[in-house]
Amino acid sequence: MTSGELYCCNVFSENPNVMRPNSSTLYERAQEGARLIRTRTSADLPVAIVLGSGLGAFAEDLTGAIEIPYDEIPGFARATVEGHAGRLVIGKAGEITIAAMQGRFHFYEGYSLEEVTFPVRVLKLLGVRTLVLTNAAGTLNIEYTPGSLMVISDHLNLLGDHPLRGANDERFGPRFPDLTSVYAQRLQDIVIDEANALGLEVRRGIYAALSGPSYETPAEIHMVRTLGADVVGMSTVPEAIVARHMDMQVAGISCITNLAAGVSDQPIDHSQVMAIGERVRGSFTALLKRVIPRIA
Ligand code: HPA
Which residues, in sequence order, are CB contacts of 264 under 8 Å at separation 6+? Predict the structure, then answer.
């Protein structure tokens, strides 16, 4: 079957970057995405990980891996950002087979939050119970140094939109989900514990998501600090909310790549964000390898 037969008419989305399957509800579209993945693997997938900017290298260390480009998965958008490869890698981290998203979708790319979080819906239907969300983030807290890690204890959704806005499908979860404990305490403790065991600099703190794509102004950073955030980024929060909607366990790990705007007088650029990702590659991979068996 050609993709033309499967995705003949772009009737569901205005966005030409989103290949729309023919099924109508979000649930059915997610089932269609999961079905495609199940034609490639029958592995039990207790854990999935979303690899943030510059952090995709972890997927290269998975053994016996298969790779599925996002443009082969019905309903998935295309990753348009440098540092986000745009494929799902399924392979073993030690004894455990996991699904790793090498690249994610962002609100600033023009995708709706439903499109941004669609892969999380698909992962749930594949049987994933625990989702590890990673990202690159700028720090507001001058005690956090670039290259160090922050385990997310809570978040601020400052995106100006919500991934659950619109009709609710009870097959996924309730209309009014509780977000008291988005990031499971047990998972936070495991990540801190393993980071300490590796001698990595790690803290616990609050992640604020802003839409981007520009980095923030110093005044915005001042505002976000006043609101109680420790770091800022442009991702993670929509995926965490949707995962909790479906009762998945969530862990969030930020790799601090820069001091946020105005915290230092240095301008911020994406190549610096990527360079720090490259620098922490080894320790980040080592951390995930220790964390995954404990959370699976
Ligand atoms: N702001 C927003 N997102 C980011 C930053 C930042 O300073 N660094 C990495 N992602």
Answer: none
